[in-house]
Design brief:
CATH architecture of the largest domain: 3-Layer(bba) Sandwich
CATH superfamily of the largest domain: FAD/NAD(P)-binding domain
Shape: globular
Distance between the termini: 50 Å
Strand content: 15-25%
Helix content: 25-40%
Radius of gyration: 23 Å
Largest sheet: 5 strands, parallel
Number of strands: 16
CATH class of the largest domain: Alpha Beta
C-alpha cells in the first residue's frame, strides 16, 4: 500500500483513467481491457502522522476511484463472489450501479442483504471471502488484484450517509408478536432489523452502556469510527427497534422470565464471546499483563486515551508486547502505539503467512513501525519485587506439518529460550462465551467451551430460543455473525408467522 500519494493525487489519476476509458466503455469493455485497468489504492493517513491520533486510517475511495475500480469487474454470470459472501450480497449488481454512477442505487442494492455495509466494508476480511472467489483475482493470480469489493461497499454506504439519503426498509403491518434480542453486536442488530421489517415488536437488550457490541468496545476508532456504528443504530431505531442498555441477561432477567411473564414470543441470544483466553504460563499475575478485551474496551468504549478528560485509567508502557496474530492483536498493538508506547512488538508463534489478521491491518501496523517477532511464544512472564512486568522468557519455534485449520503447526525448538524486555503484555489469543446465560438457563445446551449448541436454523435446545454470532462460533468476523443472524431471523419469522 502506497500511503505517500495524497487523496487528491489518487483521485486525479483515477479521473484520467476514466477519461481514457470513456470511448471504450461506450462500446463496452472486453475482459482483457478490464483486466488491464489498474487496481485502485486506498488513500490513507500518512503513517507517521497517524501514530499520534485516533482518526480513521483508511480514508475511502473518491467517486472517480470507485468508478474506475467498478470498471474492473468482469460481471461473471455465475457470480462466484456472491457465493463467497456469508450474507449473499448481490455484488455484481451493486458494482454495476457504481460503474454507472448510480451510487444511491448501489447502496440500496447492498442493503437487500447487508444492513451494516459501512461497517462490513471497513472490517470484514474480504480477501478470505468474496474477493478470494473473484475471477479477476484468480486470473491475475493474486487476491490483491481482485476487485476491491469491500472498498466499493464502504464507498456506497458512506456516500449514502454523507448525502443524508438513507432509505428506510419497507415495513410490514404490525403482527402483535414480540421478540427479545440479547446483545447488540452484528448478529443481534441483524436479527433486530429482519424481525422489525416483518412487523414484529423488537427490543434489544445490551449489557453495556452503549449499543454496538464488539463494534464499539472491541474495534478501535481508527479502524471503525463510532459515528458509523451509531448511524446504523439510529436507522434501526427509526423503524421502531427499541434498545435497553445496562441490562445483563441472566442477571437482570432470565431467558425464562423474558419468555414467561415478560411476554416475549421468541428470544435471540447474540451476546458475543467476551471471556478472554490467557496463556496459562507463570507470571500472568503481574501488573501490566492485560487481556486485549480489557485494554481495548478501556480505550474504545471508555475513551481512556483522552488524557485529562476521561476518568478511566489506562496502563501506559514504554515497550509493549502483544501476544497473538489476529485482528484483535493488530488492534491492541496499534492502540498501544497511540497510547504512547515507544516500541510495540507483536509476538506470534507462526509466520506472517499463517497470520489470521486482515492483510490491510498487518500492512498498516508495519507502516506504523510495529515490530513483528515471528516464531516466538512466551514460556513465562518476568516481574520485579514490586509485582510489575519486566519482560518475558520467549521460546523460538519452527513450522511443522499443517494442523486442522490448514496452517502449519508451530514446533518448539529445545534450548532456544531467551529473555525479552518489556513493561506491558497484552494477551490477544481469542475469547470464549461468558457462561452466565448457560448457567441461568436450565436446558440450554452448550459445548465444552461454553458455546451454545444450535441446529441449522440457529435454534437452541430451548423452545423459541435461537442463538448466533460469537456465542455460537467463538470469536468470528462481523459478517459471519451477520450471516448467522439472518438465518436465525428467517427461522424466527417462520415461527411467529
Amino acid at each position: 500500500m502506497n500511503t505517500a500519494k495524497t487523496q487528491s493525487a489518487l483521485d486525479a489519476e483515477a479521473g484520467k483513467i476514466l477519461a481514457s476509458l470513456a470511448e471504450k466503455t461506450a462500446r463496452g469493455l472486453g475482459p482483457r481491457e478490464r483486466m488491464a485497468i489498474p487496481a485502485q489504492e486506498m488513500p490513507a493517513q500518512e503513517s507517521r502522522a497517524r501514530r499520534g491520533n485516533m482518526d480513521e486510517v483508511a480514508l475511502g475511495y473518491s467517486e472517480n476511484q470507485a468508478r474506475v475500480e467498478a470498471e474492473r469487474c468482469l460481471g461473471c454470470k455465475n457470480e462466484p463472489c456472491v457465493k463467497g459472501c456469508p450474507v449473499g450480497v448481490p455484488i455484481p449488481r451493486f458494482i454495476e450501479e457504481i460503474r454507472r454512477g448510480n451510487f444511491k442505487a448501489a447502496a440500496d442494492t447492498i442493503k437487500e442483504a447487508n444492513l451494516l455495509p459501512a461497517v462490513c466494508g471497513r472490517v470484514c476480511p474480504q480477501e478470505r471471502q468474496c474477493q478470494a472467489e473473484c475471477t479477476l483475482g484468480k486470473s491475475l493470480k493474486s487476491v490483491d488484484k481482485a476487485v476491491a469489493i469491500g472498498r466499493l461497499e464502504r464507498f456506497a454506504a458512506d456516500w449514502e450517509r454523507e448525502q443524508g439519503r438513507p432509505s428506510p426498509p419497507a415495513l410490514k403491518p404490525p403482527t402483535g408478536k414480540k421478540a427479545a434480542v440479547i446483545g447488540s453486536g452484528p448478529a443481534g442488530l441483524t436479527v433486530a432489523a429482519d424481525l422489525a421489517r416483518e412487523g414484529h415488536e423488537v427490543t434489544v437488550f445490551e449489557a453495556l452502556h452503549r449499543i454496538g457490541g464488539v463494534m464499539v468496545y472491541g474495534i478501535p476508532e481508527f479502524r471503525l469510527p463510532k459515528r458509523i456504528v451509531q448511524a446504523e443504530v439510529d436507522g434501526l431505531a427509526a423503524i421502531g427497534v427499541r434498545f435497553q442498555t445496562n441490562y445483563l441477561a441472566g442477571r437482570t432477567r432470565s431467558i425464562g422470565e423474558l419468555l414467561g411473564e415478560d411476554g416475549y414470543d421468541a428470544v435471540f441470544i447474540g451476546a458475543g464471546a467476551g471471556l478472554p483466553k490467557f496463556l496459562g504460563v507463570p507470571g500472568e499475575h503481574y501488573a501490566g499483563v492485560l487481556s486485549a478485551n480489557e485494554y481495548l474496551t478501556r480505550a474504545n468504549l471508555m475513551k481512556a486515551y483522552r488524557d485529562g478528560l476521561a476518568a478511566t485509567p489506562s496502563f501506559r508502557s514504554r515497550t509493549a508486547a502483544v501476544i497473538g496474530g489476529g485482528n484483535v492483536a493488530m488492534d491492541a498493538a496499534r492502540m498501544a502505539l497511540r497510547l504512547g508506547a515507544e516500541q510495540v512488538h507483536v509476538i506470534y508463534r507462526r509466520t506472517r503467512e499463517e497470520m489470521p489478521a486482515r492483510a490491510e491491518e498487518v500492512e498498516h501496523a508495519q507502516e506504523e513501525g510495529i515490530v513483528f517477532d515471528f516464531l516466538r511464544n512466551p514460556v513465562r512472564i518476568l516481574g520485579n519485587d514490586r509485582g510489575f512486568v519486566t519482560g518475558m522468557e520467549l521460546q523460538q519455534f519452527r513450522l511443522g506439518e499443517p494442523d486442522q485449520s490448514g496452517r502449519r503447526s508451530p514446533v518448539a525448538i529445545p534450548g532456544s529460550e531467551y529473555n525479552f524486555n518489556c513493561d506491558m503484555v497484552i494477551v490477544a489469543l481469542g475469547n470464549e462465551p461468558n457462561p452466565l446465560l448457560v448457567r441461568t438457563s436450565p436446558g440450554l445446551a452448550a459445548d465444552k467451551r461454553g458455546r451454545i449448541v444450535v441446529d441449522e436454523n440457529q435454534k437452541s435446545s430451548l423452545d423459541r430460543v435461537y442463538a448466533g454470532g460469537d456465542i455460537v462460533l467463538g470469536a468470528a468476523t462481523v459478517i459471519l455473525a451477520m450471516g448467522e443472524g439472518r438465518r436465525a431471523a428467517a427461522a424466527i419469522n417462520r415461527l411467529l408467522a
